[in-house]
Fold this protein.
Amino acid sequence: MQNTHLIPIPSLCTHYQIEMSFFTGLNAYGLIEFISVEKTYCIHQDKIADVEKMIRLHQDLQLNYEGIDAVFNLLEKIDYLKSELITAQNKLKRFEDG
Amino acid sequence: MAFIDYYKILGVDKSATKSDIKKAYRKLARKHHPDLNPNDKEAELQFKKVNEANEVLSNDENRKKYDKYGENWQHGEAYDQAQKQQEQQHQSQQHYQRSSGSQDFGDGEYSDFFESMFGGGFGNRPGNTKFRGQDFNAQLQLDLKDVYTSEKRVLTVNGKNIRLTIPAGITNGQIIKIKGKGGEGRNGGPNGDLLIEFNISNTTDFKRDGSNLYKTVNLDVYKSVLGGDVIIETFDSKVKLTIKPLTQNGTQVKLKGKGFPIYKKEGQFGDLVITYNIELPKKLSDKEKELFEELAKLQ
């Protein structure tokens, strides 16, 4: 993994104006994964969209870590069911007339 | 620009306490939050309304101003002056226009009504945090023939031209994400992504399931009984198939690698499954009938 794709947590704290404890909490609950680079905790840039969603859920809806985890699990399930539905609809087309 | 009833939006009455407002806001925010309702424009609009109602009603000063002017918000300043004059001169001839029509929530954070009454928003709300821009969703209509080979296209989304290579074998309903081509980030945050959903129509004789193609080929009764050769069209060429004698109706033959391209696996293809449909003659000549009768006697 290239280090250029990693974003230091302190930079995120500054950027989003959020305390470090929020990120350490997310890490402790397994919602994000810290990667240690030269004694600095980082996350991969691909995880930024998820982190922002977590920040919004926490700030807008006052969700705690357990709540965020539950929401993410349910959204993942919705995505899976949506893709299953599309696959099933595509399969069904084989048996439709025309 | 119409008057917006913030109390109605939150479902509370005018005498609601701060705690009632907070409770109503939290309940509605949980219901309509865009992260909990992905790709739901209606939920997004409702969330904006609920947020705005909360911005006004949870702030004492703004609630006071809103309650004071109410539906006469368009003439707020004039209303103030008129009241002063009324107090001083004991006369009032003012007439206040009442607005009607739809609530004006555009794509912005606040309605025109809100901007007009309170300005551009509050400095200490979470909205000041740097956030990634909104993801844009677009749909692209293509024919099955279009996605048999990889194709370069230029799409215009929100006035911007975006070059895109559509990989061969993309499936109906599949979504491709183009990073950074969505809405602009808030307060200096990064741009959102553009999510393109592919709607693939099929006007061919082939049915598709993933990378496999299915086709029904009609055989006359003589060829199905005696066997022979047929030329059939695959998706991009023709092949000669040998029909075995006594081929039954519904028999399937799999042509390996003659199906649809496998998504993002260059040079790899699925299979083409041929199903034989035996067609009986619809009309018989006297001679044919005679011969069939002879055949029947042999059974």
The mean pLDDT of chain A is 89. Residues 68 and 87 of chain A are 29 Å apart (CA to CA). Chain A touches chain B through 25 residues (CB under 8 Å).
